[in-house]
TrEMBL record:
Naturally occurring in which organism (per UniProt): Drymodes brunneopygia
InterPro entries: Leu-rich_rpt, Leu-rich_rpt_typical-subtyp, LRR_dom_sf, LRR_domain-containing
Compositional bias ranges of the Polar residues kind: 228-248
GO cellular component, one term: cytoplasm
UniProt cross-references to SUPFAM superfamilies, sorted A to Z: L domain-like
Protein name as it appears in the record: LRC18 protein
Organism domain of life: Eukaryota
Residue ranges, annotated region (Disordered): 225-256
Entry keywords, A to Z: Leucine-rich repeat, Repeat
């Protein structure tokens, strides 16, 4: 058995990396090393640092080294489904980045560097399926964000600065313990309801049954006194459609 924890990973050579470069539909060159069994960031790909897209998803990466700053042409970076618990501050130097997928990792709030907010061109950010308990308010500076994935975390609040991002179109917050999405408990009807009514003459009842019926009659009269009369009809001047309600933030968004 090899020493050390976790998978040792596959070694990627420069030849393998060069053969993994593809031209995407948008004309960009993409280095696709997804599902390669990589556990350590391959330093040999620094020779291909001029690519516009880099896919390292579905591997066993535990760390992204600071040499990621060498990929200054990157516009698209996919790191989803690895074992990352933090990002290097140098990721903030990728000023051309418009797409960043970090979902399905082990990222914590402390693992998100403040330099992440320097990605001012970022339009799509996926942080779903991680271990986030809070969200940095500084993410509100990413004013170009159109899509934000926050699903399957432990978030109890979304900062106002993030909610108010001017270009935000889709925000997926499913399966977080957010109070605004909590299910209200079913209301309990405290009013006693009379389900059966039997009509008999007093002379046909024994004393105990008569006493019970009189008690039920008194209870019925008490309920009648609590019910508003027909002349006291409730007025709802602002109700557009009868028996309708409006729920804010009813629409749920799904990441593309």
């Amino acid at each position: 058995m090899p020493k050390g924890k976790g998978p040792q990973g596959k070694r990627i050579t420069l030849k393998v990396a060069k053969n993994s470069v593809r031209v995407a539909f948008n004309g960009r060159r993409r280095l696709d090393l997804s599902k390669m069994g990589i556990a350590t960031f391959p330093k040999c790909i620094l020779e291909l640092a001029d690519v516009e897209e880099l896919d390292l998803s579905r591997n066993f990466l535990r760390k992204i080294p600071n040499i990621i700053e060498k990929f200054q042409n990157l516009m698209w970076l996919d790191l989803h489904s690895n074992q990352l618990d933090e990002l290097p501050p140098e990721i903030g130097t990728l000023q051309n980045l418009t797409y960043l997928n970090l979902s399905n990792n082990k990222l914590t709030t402390k693992g998100l560097p403040e330099e992440l907010t320097r990605l001012r061109s970022l339009r799509i950010l996926n942080l779903g399926l991680n271990c986030l308990e809070t969200l940095p308010t500084t993410l509100g500076t990413l004013r170009e964000l159109v899509e934000l994935g926050l699903f399957d975390n432990s978030l109890t609040i979304i900062p106002k600065s993030v909610k108010r991002l001017p270009k935000m179109e889709r925000m997926n917050v499913k399966r977080n313990p957010l109070p605004e999405f909590a299910v209200e408990p079913e209301r309990i009807d405290t009013i006693k309801r009379i389900e059966s009514l039997y009509l008999v003459e007093k002379k046909d009842l024994c004393s105990s049954c008569l006493q019970t019926c009189q008690g039920e009659r008194d209870e019925l009269h008490r309920l009648e006194d609590m019910t508003p009369g027909s002349s006291e009809k409730p007025n709802f001047p602002s109700l557009v459609t009868p028996n309708s309600t409006a729920i804010d933030n009813q629409e749920e968004w799904r990441m593309k």
